[in-house]
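With this grant's support, we have settled on a layout for protein records. An illustrative entry appears below exactly as we store it:
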Amino acid sequence: MSTTGTTDHEAAGPWGARDGREAAGRLLRAATRSGAHLVAEAAALVQGWAVLADPIAGAVYSTPASAAADGVHAAAAPQEHPYCVQLPAAGAILVLAPAPTTPAEHTGHVAATTAALLEVRGQRAAELRGEQMRLHTTLIRLLLAGHTSVVTETLGRNTTTATETPGRDTATTGTGTGTGSLCGNRLTHVTVYRLAGADIPAAHQVLWRAVRPSLDPYADACTLLGRLDGELVVAELHHGGDDGRVLRLVSRVSERHRLLAGMAGPLPLAEMPTAHSGAAAARHSATPDRRIVPADAVGSSRLAPLLPTVPYARWAQSVLRPLAPAHRHLLLVWLRTGSKPRAAAALGLSAGTVRARIRELARLLGADLEDATAQAHLLLALRAPGPDEGGNAALPSGPSGPDRLEALPGGLLDTEAVRSWAYGLVGGLEPHLRIALACWLRHHARTAPAAAELHVHRTTLTSWLGRCAEHLAQNLADATVRAELHLALRATRNGSDDPAALPRRGGRTYRRL
C-alpha cells in the first residue's frame, strides 16, 4: 500500500484496520493545515471528489473545483445522488463521491473522520467568534463616528489571525474578514445593509458563516457585520465596485429568516453615516414581497420625470436655498421614514433632537412642515434634479424672488402627462374610498383622527384603506407612496373631497353611489 498520495486499494486487497489508521493519520495531518487541505485529502482517499456545501454560501470547499455545483446539488437533493456519501459537518454538508473501486467501508470511515475533524475546527472558530463579532461592531461604530482612517489602518495591518467558519480558512486582519495583504487605502467606498426582524440573532450567525468564507479570494473587499440597537448592520467595504455577492447572500438570509432590509451605496467611506441612515429609511419601505429596498429607490418619484425640467429645478433650488446638505438629508430621511421617531432611529439621534431641528428648518423654509401638502411638496423638491444634471448650469432665479414651498409654479402639475399619471393612479376609486383616503393622508396616516373626522369607526376606515391599497396596488405603509397619492388626489379633484361630502345612509353608515 502506498503511504503517500492516493491509496491503491485494488493492489492492497480488502480494506482493513491498517487502512483506517493510515487514512485517519493523513486526514489529521491535513486538518492541522486547513479545512481546504482536509477536504482535498478526503477526495484523494476516496479517489473521487469532495465538497463541503453550505446552504447559503454554496460550495465552501471543493476538490476538484469543477465538482462544486454537483456537490451543492447533491446536498440539496440527496435522493438524486445515491452514490454520494453525505454527512453534516460544522453547519454544512460534507459530500463525498468515491470511485467505483473504493470499498464502502473505507469511504464511510473517511467521511466520518473528515466530518468529525471539520466539527472540531468549527468549534474552535466558534470560540473566537464572539470576540470577532464584538470587534466588527466596534469598527462599524467607529465608521459611523467618522474615524475612517482608524478603521482602514486596522484592516490594512499585516498582523493576521487564522480563523475559519465553517471550516473555511481565512487569514484575517484583526477583523477576521480580509487577508493579511489587504491595504487599507484600497477601501474607499462602502455599501450598507440594515436588517430588522424577529430572527436577527440566527440571521447574524448564518450571515457570519456565509459571508466571511466567500471573501477569502478577494483582497479588495472586506465585510463587517455587527448588531447595533437590535438591528443587523452589514457594511461591505470595497474600492468603489460592488459585485453583488453580499447582496445575494443578504437577500437569501432575508427570505429564509423573514427579515426586512434596506441598502445604501456604494458611497465614499467618509459618507458612512449617510449610507447608514439611508439604509434605515429604505428598510421602512420594504415589504414581505420586496424584502430588500435600495435607498435610491425610496422617494424616487414616478411623478418627478413627468414635470417640466427647468421650472421644476428652478423652484426646487429656490425653495431649498436656505438649507445646508445636512439639513436636506435630515428632511429626506424624515419624509422617507414617515415619522420623527423612525427618522431619529435612522439618524442615530434622539427623537427630541429631530423634532427641534425640524422646527428650526420649518422656520428657515417659512412653511408649516406639519401640513401634508407641504410635506409632499418638500419631498418633490428634495428629489428634483440638481443644476449639474442633464448638463445644465445653475438655473436662473425666478422673476418674483424666492419661491414658497406651499405653492408650486404655475403649470407644473397642470400638464397632460401629469393628469394622465394622476388619473391612472387614483381615477378609479369609489367616492367614499377617495374621500376616506384623502382625509387619512391629511392626518399623516393616523387612523384615529381621520376616522373621527369622517364619523366612521376605526375598523371601517381600516377596511376602506385596505380596499384602497388593493385597488391602487400600492403599499400605503410607504411614506413616499402616500406623498404621491396626496398629490394625485389634489391633481384630480373635480369636486369636494371634504369628509362632509361622504355618502351616508343614517348613523355612521354610508351609501355607495
Observations:
- Residues 104-144 form the longest helix (41 residues).
- Confidence is low (pLDDT under 50) at residues 1-13, 158-184, 213-218, 388-401.
- The radius of gyration is 30 Å.
